[in-house]
Amino acid sequence: MMDLRVELTKNPKEKPQGNLGFGKYFTDHMFVMDYSPENGWYNAAIVPFGPIEVSPACMCLHYGQEVFEGMKAYRNSEGGVQLFRPEENFKRLNVSNDRMCIPKFDEAFLLDALMKLVEIDQEWVPREEGASLYIRPFIIGTEPSLGAHSSTHFKFLIIMSPSGAYYETGLAPVKIYVETKYVRAVTGGTGFAKTAGNYAASMKAQDVAAEEGYSQVLWLDGVERKYVEEVGAMNVFFKLGDEIVTPALDGSILSGITRKSVVDILKSWGMNVQERMLSIDELVQAYKDGKLEEAWGTGTAAVISPIGELKYGDLVMEINQNQIGPISQKLYDTLTGIQWGKIEDTFGWVKKVD
Ligand code: PLP
Ligand code: COI
C-alpha cells in the first residue's frame, strides 16, 4: 500500500465556540494526494490545513471537472468518535469518478487515511448536542490547460468542518418549492454523480425559491417535469396512506446513503416502503384525498428533515399541520441514535475511530 506522510501543524487553531453554523470552520489538518499519468495516485499526506497552489488555468476552474462527498464524524456517548458507513461514501465517490473521467482510487487506502485524519483532529469533533464534524472529500482536475478535455492531473483532498444543523430551523419542518421552470439533471446526464456542476445548475432555482421564503426546491424530472426526483441536498420520502414512497434511482437522482439507510430502517419496522416513480399529480391527488400524511428529506447534512409545506404552482400543500410527524420523528431518533451511539447499531453501520 501507498505510504501516508504525516506533517502536524505547529500552530493549532482556537476551536470555535457557540453556534457553529454549517461548513464555516475548518480543522487543523487536511488530507492531500496527487494524480499524474506517470505515478497514478501518489504523494498521499496529512498536512496542516491551508491554501493549495493551482494554476489559474487549472481545468476544474474552467470546466468543472470535480467530484465530492459529504460524511460526518460523531461524538459517541462514551466520548469516542465514530463514522457512519464511510465505505459507502468512498464507493460512491468512485462511481462519480467514473462518470466524470477521474481516475479511481483505492477505497481501502482512503478509508485508512480518513480514519487517521479524524484521529489526529479528534478534538475538533463537537460535543454539543446535534453537532458533528462534517467531512468533505473532493477531487479536482488540476492540469493547466484551456482545451476542453479530461484533465491529466488531479488532486484529492479531504477537509473537515465542525458543524451544527444544515437548516437553521433544526428539526422544525422546512418549506419546499416544487420547481417547474428549471431542471437539475436529466437521464444520461450527471445527476447520479456528486459533482460540482449539479449544484451550480441548481442555484438559480434555489435563489428564486429563497426569495419566496422556501428553503430548497423539489426537482421534477428533466424531460416531462412530471416525476418527483429529489431536493437540493437531500432525497425525499412521502407517506401516502399506508405506503411510504421514495423516488426510484433513475440515473438523475443521487443515490443517498441516508436514503438507503432509511429504507432499511423502515423495512426493519415492517413498513411498506416502495422505491418507485411518483408523479407530482399523484402527490397532489394524495394530498387532496387527505393521504399525504408526512413528507421528509434525508441527507448527511440535513439528517431527517420534515417537510411542512410544498408549493406547486398556486397550490400550497400543508403537511401534517406543519409539524414533524411520528414516522419522521421516529426515524430521526433511530438514525441519530445509531450515528451518535446512543442506541444499538443492529445494522453494523458504525465505524469507531480509536
Ligand atoms: N441528493 C443530493 C443532491 C445531495 O447533495 C445529497 C447530499 O449528499 C443527498 C441527496 C443525500 O445523500 P446522502 O444521504 O448520501 O448524504
Ligand atoms: C451532504 O449532505 O453531504 C451534502 O452534500 C449536501 C451539501 C450540498 C451540503
Q: What is the third-level CATH name, the topology of the largest domain?
A: D-amino Acid Aminotransferase, Chain A, domain 2
Strand content: 25-35%
Radius of gyration: 21 Å
Q: Which ions, cofactors or small ligands are bound in this entry? A: pyridoxal-5'-phosphate, 2-OXO-4-methylpentanoic acid
Number of domains: 2
Coarse morphology: globular
**N-C termini distance:** 21 Å
CATH superfamily of the largest domain: D-amino Acid Aminotransferase, subunit A, domain 2
Cofactor: pyridoxal 5'-phosphate
GO molecular function, one term: branched-chain-amino-acid transaminase activity
EC number: 2.6.1.42
Protein name: Branched-chain-amino-acid aminotransferase
Q: SSE layout and pairings?
A:
Elements lengths: L4 E2 L22 E8 L3 E9 L10 H5 L2 E3 L2 E5 L5 E4 L1 H14 L7 H14 L11 E10 L12 E10 L10 E5 L17 H5 L2 H9 L4 E5 L7 E4 L3 E6 L2 E5 L9 H12 L3 E5 L3 H9 L3 E8 L3 E10 L2 E4 L7 H14 L10 E4 L1
Parallel strand pairs: 1-3, 9-10, 9-16, 13-14
Antiparallel strand pairs: 2-3, 2-8, 4-7, 5-6, 5-7, 6-18, 7-8, 10-11, 12-13, 12-15, 15-16, 16-17
The protein binds pyridoxal-5'-phosphate (PLP) and 2-OXO-4-methylpentanoic acid (COI).
Catalytic activity: L-valine + 2-oxoglutarate = 3-methyl-2-oxobutanoate + L-glutamate; L-isoleucine + 2-oxoglutarate = (S)-3-methyl-2-oxopentanoate + L-glutamate; L-leucine + 2-oxoglutarate = 4-methyl-2-oxopentanoate + L-glutamate
EC number: 2.6.1.42
Cofactor: pyridoxal 5'-phosphate
